[in-house]
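Protein Record: Sequence and Backbone Structure Tokens
======================================================
Scope: a single protein chain, as residues and as a discrete description of its fold.
Tokens: labelled as protein backbone structure tokens, with as many entries as the chain has residues.
Position: the record begins directly beneath this header, with no further notes in between.
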Amino acid sequence: MENQAYKLANLSDDQLKKIQEAEPTLGSINLLAFQSVALNPAQLNVSQLECLQGLEKNLGVTLVAYRK
């Protein structure tokens, strides 16, 4: 089953310039650009899930488990 996730977008110089030009018109708002990617989510057992959750808590990040 394919699912969508998002990663920081790979922007061309022109795309980056357009975003940078737009930011000042938005006041104190900054922009991040994301693009979708297809992922095959991993099916985790209880032990794997607990390990992943512990790592997330320890690192202060959100992790996504998927299979290639």
In short: DSSP finds two helices and three strands in the chain. The two ends are 12 Å apart (CA to CA). The CA atoms of residues 44 and 54 lie 14 Å apart.
